[in-house]
Amino acid sequence: MNPQLLFWVPAVLRMSLMLLGALVLWFMFGPVVGLGAGVLGACLMIIVQLHYLYRLSRWLDNPDSEKLPDGWGAWTDIFSRLYRLRRDDEKNRTELVEWLARFRQAMSLLPDGVVIMDDVLFLEWCNPAAERHLGLKNSRDKGMRVTNLIRSPDFMDYIILGRYEHPLTLTLRERKLFVQIIPFENRRQILVTHDVTESERIEMMRRDFIANASHELRTPLTVINGFLEIASSQANLDPPTRAAHLKLMTEQGHRMQNLVEDMLTLTRLESIDYPLRPERVAIGSLLDQILEEAKALSAGRHTITVEADGPDVRGSTDELRSAFGNLVSNAVRYTPDGGSITLSWRMGKNGPQFAVRDTGIGIQAEHIHRLTERFYRVDKSRSRETQGTGLGLAIVKHVLLRHDAVLSIESKPEQGSTFIVTFPMSAVAPDAAALSGDTLATA
């Protein structure tokens, strides 16, 4: 049935009954009583309507579906409709609050910064990434103009020009950011920030790596090609000269081979296609092998001592041999003749530790934090003399990362260096027996 009929039919019936009663009283008791009864009935109806209007007005001041008043007559239908509308509104409001909470949670997890502003750039909301990138604080800066919060002439020019189709490259708070404003709706704008600091650093490292690798390969190739040209143009070289040329070419060839092998090793260590396959590493046997290699490299020029009093660990034997071997070979190369080198393996407070101590030339403090960078050399001329590739400590760094181990370096110029590798307790092999603390070998 039509809702308007549901409203008007009861009202007409009540008015008709009131008039009929007034007419009956008119004929029975005279016009005065009839009119009085009619007026009284009309007043009562008006008072009832005013009463429900008052209750409706009070409810509108604090609209709560649980406190919606009951009605009589046509008011029953009115209050029923209001109740349904209020319940629908509360349901929609709840869904909106939940959606807004999910939206803010999702925006909070984004690595990119998101700032919501009105049409005159007043801050309405920002996520944690935007707080880190731009130095904002949502609880503190809400309602403030963004141009007053981001003090950058380049950002101001970007706002004034209004060329939002292209991002702005902005250096702020020691970060390099891509910033772009995206208008949406009629009175809202989104400021998006993307931190490219790390990608720029990686790109710079890639360029440096290519340049350094090219430089390292160019020197031996130049030597080899030069001697080949001499050999091809001068067929009657005397045997001593030919032997010297072949010796130098062989040395440079080995140098290139070592460099390429180290580069391939680094690539493999960084690749997700070669996950670590842990095995039980027999540290005693491993140290014996490293000792023999160190003695061969030293050729009797140093005193090398190995001390072991620690457990076996779980890891990659080949990778740990490479890491430990690089630390020991560096100690041999940078320790003058007659110096001493001590290798130790023991259980420390935080886990097993491998240490290499030497009495070599030492390292100045400003160089220590950069030693694990690829091709970084403290003294380039001396590094050429020692035939190092410049990748040894970078390999050590990546091997230790794969084993959750940490490298620490202690060094003073002309007083020697100590390289300490600390493994976590979780790396200890199950039921590992501690090795003897006796000195294993002395060379």
Topology:
Layout lengths: L2 H27 L1 H31 L12 H36 L3 E6 L4 E4 L1 H7 L3 H4 L4 H4 L3 H9 L6 E5 L2 E10 L3 E8 L1 H37 L5 H32 L8 E3 L1 H16 L4 E7 L3 E3 L1 H17 L6 E8 L4 E7 L6 H4 L11 H6 L6 H11 L3 E7 L3 E7 L16 E4 L1
Parallel strand pairs: 7-9
Antiparallel strand pairs: 1-2, 1-5, 3-4, 4-5, 6-8, 7-13, 9-10, 10-12, 11-12
Keywords for this structure?
6-stranded mixed sheet; elongated; 4 domains; 5-stranded antiparallel sheet; 443 residues
Task: Please characterize this protein's 3D structure.
The protein is of the alpha+beta class and 443 residues long. It has 4 domains: 3-100, no CATH class; 110-195, Beta-Lactamase (2-Layer Sandwich); 205-270, Orthogonal Bundle (Helix Hairpins), CATH 1.10.287.130; 279-442, Heat Shock Protein 90. It is 54% helix and 18% strand. It contains 14 helices and 13 strands. A 6-stranded mixed beta sheet has the order 11-12-10-9-7-13, covered by helices on one side. A 5-stranded antiparallel beta sheet has the order 2-1-5-4-3. A two-stranded antiparallel sheet has the order 6-8. A hairpin with a 3-residue loop joins strand 4 and strand 5. The chain is elongated. Residues 433-443 have low confidence and may be disordered.
